[in-house]
């Protein structure tokens, strides 16, 4: 897709001051994409990594590759860059031959220089590149270098990180810069009645700017701490109208077919042209699995910088989708899109659509008022916990009919939940602006709108809804509930986390019921040789580590989007007297095709495991009628160091197969492996996340 | 009377209100951006600095309370032999993903290395309890601590 829209060599690579710059529309959100992309270019050109730089991603210059999400960056940007680098090598080879003569097969390319036999003059590829016409099209048939597997690339930026000199967006500090904070309403349905003018005057006389637009309030000033204090004071001086309150009650009661728009899912895609299938006529086993609202919970709260010069709005953002964000900000402010430029600068890892886009728009609003001053807006921890768009509460209902041999004869899955589509993508009825938080509160407000269902194959709630197993008769339904109490958007894995958790727990339950081994039962339903060899590897690893006394052991398998990285996970854990789960050891076996960045791949798989472990053990957004109540790291608990198990990761090398993304492949199987291990340890089937001590105790009392 | 703080081996005269939490004095006045703002609530560890050799959160306690103490930020860690070892170990173990937690962890690991004996994995986990990493770089961080505290 990327190469079709951006066919020229100069769309992907440029030369500046003797260094090669990689152009990509993909941004480094902590998944180390730039390390992998530089690695690919390095391999093609045999250059040292310090000869290659990654250009800042900017909406007015970089290829628009859409979102950096869904683990597809290596396939898209990586493929285009590999061919671009190969095109450059081919052009440079011709130039080298023109200079020194000889046959192409006699030229050796090593350490970025051509060496001809009998000549001791190496010709540097970067020197030759100066004369290459970068406006030529990328040659899709350019020969590729033999691909060495899994070379470890040094992680870009790591040296600066450990020295404290790496710059995040949050660290920007430019002349005349103003820091800003936004005092927020108590909850999403409150609005500002008035602000005590005395307080505003006092703040303004101390050099703080107070900005108000409807119920959107902000303070700005030259020093950060006084601005934080001013925001706190201003909060205390606001009178909010709270006649409306947040809907209370058990969100899982809302997740029913009656409340939902239902669609048949066929071959992984929702369909409006097919009737919603009838339930299975005979059901032997059924179960429902549930997940609460879940935060992205970036370690660094969202931030953005913006400056307005009267014509042009320049924004620096850590959004995953700076192109669609630009459209929606331009539309919200009635600006021509070309007068809004967004550059990417790293924030902390985000795991989906968090507050980044909202912060960018809020900074823009302030910049428009404070013309000429760069405004660095930071969300507070409280803002991030209470106002980011969460991963939606959802449920998946599974039922199965078993054959006489105990195998799955028929299977049904229905995913019921809120939307993952909260990104500010423009569309009819100001759909883009409606997704930017501040627009709900401005004088000229654009209210939240219920989003349309994601109809993409393996998108949204229905991602991994169809099991990877061979089952004769299946039916799948996606049920989108639009009336939800809290704002939601894309969170790592989308529906795959809950669906794989559900399916892999369910398979385990059925295997158990029919007295079969967890590995064997899965194998019965698998023909994919790569899946089978992963299960074999995992089983072999486990056989070398007999389960310790008192431990529960669980396994799970999944292939992300049924097409990408295959992951098998095993977990050993104990449950103590206080009903706390203690993860002891984990095994991850994965097949991601050809390995581009081995260490990065392991980091992604282990990072996914640990995030899912945090979801499984702790994470749930809580609220009452007066607002969100999980507003810090005590009330919204996450995994901490003492809870981290030993993890053994085993990668299967597939040099001949395409590389597929792995950033979202391990969480689903991890959730199920933990649940299955809890069952093994306690006999309790935990079907709702998270498995807190209270939840375990309640489950034990209910049996 | 103005406040003087000893930071990375130098005496710094502080112009900010002494009630300002140390983190904001470091980042905003002294432009030492290494320590990060993660929560401002002493819950996440992103803002840790060494105070008399101990990893200490800087986002809440007023700058004035650090008078007379030896403050070392992540920028100054390389001036300590143990700190350099920790930095090298983090690089060797690729102990970061997004890296927002890294400076706090480098500081905490340096405090551990300063103890001057091998640190078991369980001890390291307990010592790093105040630090969150949302990307799941924990195993590598633990490996880095192991490398840094085992080699003399
Ligand atoms: S910023 Fe200090 S502990 Fe989080
Ligand atoms: S590496 Fe991202 S928070 Fe630790």
Task: Please describe what this structure looks like.
The complex is a heterodimer of chains A (703) and B (152). Helix content of chain A is 30%, strand content 21%. Chain A is an alpha+beta fold and 703 residues long. Among the domains of chain A are: 2-146, Aldehyde oxidase/xanthine dehydrogenase, molybdopterin binding domain (Aldehyde Oxidoreductase, domain 4), CATH 3.30.365.10; 172-243 and 301-321 and 340-379, no CATH class; 514-702, 2-Layer Sandwich (Aldehyde Oxidoreductase, domain 4). A seven-stranded mixed sheet of chain A has the order 9-10-7-18-15-16-17, sandwiched between helices. A six-stranded mixed sheet of chain A has the order 13-12-21-20-19-14, covered by helices on one side. A four-stranded mixed sheet of chain A has the order 22-23-24-27. In chain A, helix 3 (33-45) packs parallel to helix 4. The relative contact order of chain A is 0.11. Chain B is 35% helix and 12% strand. In chain B, a hairpin with a 2-residue loop joins strand 3 (49-51) and strand 4. Chain B has a five-stranded mixed sheet, covered by helices on one side. Chain B has five helices and five strands. Chain B has helices at 22-29, 81-92, 102-114, 121-127, 138-150; strands at 3-7, 10-14, 49-51, 54-56, 70-72. Chain B has two domains: 3-72, Ubiquitin-like (UB roll) (Roll); 77-150, [2Fe-2S]-binding domain (DNA polymerase, domain 1). Chain B is of the alpha+beta class and 152 residues long. Chains A and B meet through helix 6, helix 8 and helix 17 of A and helix 1, helix 2, helix 3, helix 4 and helix 5 of B. One FE2/S2 (inorganic) cluster sits between chains B (96-101, 133-135, 137) and A (30, 299, 348-349).
